[in-house]
Amino acid sequence: MPMAKQEAAPDAVARAVEALTDALGSDAVLTARGDLDEFRDPFWVLGSADHDVSAAVLPGSVAEIQAVVRIANEHRVPLWTVSTGRNYGYGGAAPRVPGSILVNLSRMNRVLEINSELGYAVVEPGVRWFDLCAALEEAGGDWWTSIPDLGWGSVVGNSLEYGRGHTRFGSHAANICGMEVVLPSGELMRTGMGAMSGNRAWHAYPFSYGPSVDGLFMQSSLGIVTQIGWRLMPRPEKYASCWLHFDGDEIIAPVIDAMRQLMLDETINNYPFLGRGVAANAEGQPDLDPDSQKWALRFALYGYAEVVEAKWRIVERVLGSVPGVTIGRKVYDGTDRVGPDRGIHDDRVQAGIPGMELLDLYKVPFGPDTGHLDFSPVGPLVGSEVLKMVRMVRGMYEEFGEPYAAGLMLLPNSIIVVSVMFFDPKDEAKTRAIYDNYDPMLAVMAKEGYGLYRTNIYKMDAVAETFDFNGHALRRFLETLKDAIDPNGVLQPGKQGIWPKVMREWRDS
Ligand SMILES: Cc1cc2nc3c(=O)[nH]c(=O)nc-3n(C[C@H](O)[C@H](O)[C@H](O)COP(=O)(O)OP(=O)(O)OC[C@H]3O[C@@H](n4cnc5c(N)ncnc54)[C@H](O)[C@@H]3O)c2cc1C
After folding, report:
1. Nearest-CA neighbor of 9 among 104, 103, 97, 96?
2. What is the DSSP string of 28-49?
3. Which residues, including other chains, have CB under 8 Å from residue 468's CB and lie 6 or more apart?
4. Would the CB of 493 count as within 6 Å of ligand 1?
5. What is the pLDDT of residues 217-246, one digit of tens each?
6. How far is the CA of 159 from the centre of ligand 1 (A)?
7. Of all protein residues, whose CA lies closest to atom 21 belonging to ligand 1?
């Protein structure tokens, strides 16, 4: 049974808050309920205090983060780190352990470097997509960044969560090249080549001497990341924003097989998105029609004019020959970066131009408070198998009486079959029922060999339970590491189902 009543010990938290205020100043520590409400999960029961933080601390430097970690260890209080706390759909800024102290890094928002020879930026955790894009434009616009659908989150927070973007460099975790991390002991460490003082290739060469540990800090409770190197994309001469439309689920299989061919041979080298039920219409206006049988695939081509033209001819030959599809494109100059009035959302996001319009679209079902829960199993990019996954998930939505809205994210040989349930967080019973739907879906998909790539704070243990090879050998390994480097269990306990020894009985079972 979930142990929802457990929370961080209030006395210890009160002592820690006093010490934090002494160390960082009262401006950097929030305790008033009104100030803390913004860190609630907007997609949970409206007004619920179930996963409230007890305080928030806003360090402005690495030294202040180290002080926060030291104080947490002294008082044995759990911390929950966010970069900008916009992790909507996965808990927002709310912690796994109620009563944790939130470490909000939004004040550390400097773009530390843009290297326009080697194509990387170095950013602090509070740098938002909006900020990085503005800095790149200011630096001359020769480099683009990959972005997710919403521009208000952070490069660091999104990438550490294995977030997805929609340009050539849309596998965000893979774009990280060299990290700086505060460990649970308070010690500062640099990964990769950064382990050598003054190394000249820290953000250019991705590996370490010896084991590479960057992955240990992704979806992780093993450290607080204080800066990362981030790969950029050279501005292409031409960019084609392309689409493919079809009606009915059957055509998914041949479309996916054709896309796999075009992605593996790098004719298409961005990360395409196949959606149904939720889309911006041709005028860029929100359009949500869950009863529609229409599917829309977006993808992009980048490069010199001749290359983009030649790639389009190949796309026409391969995708255009799939019966029942229509395809089209709009071609832009790489320098054509005029902002929100440029094309529709799909045109902008595949060119790394950030915006917030998709959040408005997601408010269509129940107004401004609309909540949604994403369910996101990963599968191989094989047409018959993707169709099977869609039918399985859609069948369960029908069983629950929920409309099926989907957004499938394609990688060259795998796919994340995301679907979305919308609800009104003012309706407590309905909200809880939506979250309850998740468990049977999880069980059915895991039985067929499909695991989730990401989940929200309420389902972290449940999803971790499905990764069960050899009696959860991977989880045991990670918890052995956790205990060794965080014996007091202060950093993000319970994150992704990894519990420190001192709190292991908190695991939902
Ligand atoms: C309409 C809509 C569209 C969306 N589209 C996308 C999309 O296209 N792609 C996508 O990936 N997501 C998408 N999302 C999900 C989410 O909004 C984004 O991923 C968002 O960028 C994450 O917010 P953030 O950067 O503020 O993360 P944060 O809330 O700052 O961080 C997320 C988590 O990462 C960890 N973390 C953060 N910072 C650190 C640190 N410095 N050190 C250690 N751990 C840390 C923590 O566990 C934290 O809870 C969408 C959501 C909505 C509602």
Report:
1. 97
2. GEE--HHHHGGGS-TTSSTT--
3. none
4. no
5. 999 999 999 999 999 999 999 999 999 999
6. 8
7. 153
